[in-house]
């Protein structure tokens, strides 16, 4: 029997809540962790399988699989993971749009230029269907290119925010809601547990993605 870390119990609860919402969804199936899944008919085993796959994955594969699940399931152009300190946000890995990944992987942004700072401060919601319609972020340089945003904190067990897990799209996305948000929060919990296992070394967890190997 595989060992499931303590934070995964919280993730399982989130997945069960997500399942109830998924059973009410009638959207088209998406590819989830390289496997087609019909969310309208998916059962509890599908969500437990996500936890098991990520828990059993090699250390350097966990973040990549979580990013792929986020990008594919939400149908966004790209997903990414960051760390945040008092003044900067560092983009450690991006999955999805090759151009976005090539230009922004490894980039360090001043916090005041980011969507995530506004999300963490409560100035914008976790889901922004059209970034140009949000006055707080409409004038940011990044808003000229990316017109939809979903972001959640990667929060450690002691309550500290280590970074963020996000998805972005070049086009507005008005079909996203609480179901997708719960899914992202579950993935962020899984990543946070692995970050703690790695003693906060997210760079080690994303090394293969950042080097393209």
Give a verbal description of the structure.
The chain has 213 residues and is of the alpha+beta class. The chain is built from 8 helices and 8 strands. It has a 6-stranded antiparallel sheet with strand order 5-4-3-8-7-6. A two-stranded antiparallel sheet has the order 1-2. α3 (62-74) runs antiparallel to α6. The model is unreliable at 1-43 (pLDDT under 50).
What's this entry about, in short?
With 213 residues, this protein is α+β, with helices and mostly antiparallel strands.
What strand order characterises the main sheet?
5-4-3-8-7-6
Secondary-structure element sequence? HEEHHEEHEHEEEHHH
Biggest β-sheet strands, sense, barrel: 6 strands, antiparallel
Structural class: alpha+beta
Strand elements, count: 8
* Number of helical regions: 8
Roughly how much helix do the residues carry, as a percent range?
25-40%
Low-confidence stretches: 1-43
| Backbone CA Rg | 16 Å
Strand content of the residues, in percent?
15-25%
Secondary structure elements and their pairing?
Layout: H1 6-22, E1 30-32, E2 35-37, H2 44-56, H3 62-74, E3 78-84, E4 88-96, H4 98-104, E5 108-110, H5 115-120, E6 127-128, E7 148-155, E8 161-169, H6 178-197, H7 202-205, H8 207-211
Antiparallel strand pairs: 1-2, 3-4, 3-8, 4-5, 6-7, 7-8
Helix pairs in contact: 1-2, 1-6, 3-6
Give short descriptive properties of this protein.
213 residues, six-stranded antiparallel β-sheet, two-stranded antiparallel ribbon, 8 helices, disordered N terminus
């Amino acid at each position: 029997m595989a060992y499931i870390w303590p934070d995964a119990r919280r993730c399982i609860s989130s997945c069960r809540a997500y399942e109830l919402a998924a059973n009410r969804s009638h959207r088209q199936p998406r590819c989830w962790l390289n496997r087609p899944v019909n969310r309208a008919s998916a059962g509890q085993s599908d969500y437990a399988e996500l936890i098991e796959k990520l828990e059993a994955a090699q250390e350097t594969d966990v973040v990549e699989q979580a990013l792929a699940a986020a990008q594919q399931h939400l149908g966004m152009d790209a997903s990414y993971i960051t760390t945040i300190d008092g003044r900067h946000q560092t983009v450690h890995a991006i999955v999805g749009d090759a151009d976005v990944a090539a230009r922004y992987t490894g980039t360090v942004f001043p916090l005041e230029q980011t969507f995530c700072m506004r999300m963490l401060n409560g100035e914008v919601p976790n889901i922004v269907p059209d970034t140009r319609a949000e006055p707080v972020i409409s004038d940011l340089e990044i808003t000229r290119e990316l017109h939809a945003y979903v972001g959640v904190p990667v929060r450690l067990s002691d309550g500290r925010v280590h970074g963020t897990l996000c998805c972005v799209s070049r086009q507005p996305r008005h079909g996203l809601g609480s179901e997708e948000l719960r899914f992202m929060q579950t993935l962020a919990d899984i990543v946070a547990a692995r970050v703690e296992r790695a003693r906060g070394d997210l760079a080690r967890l994303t090394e293969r993605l950042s080097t393209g190997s």
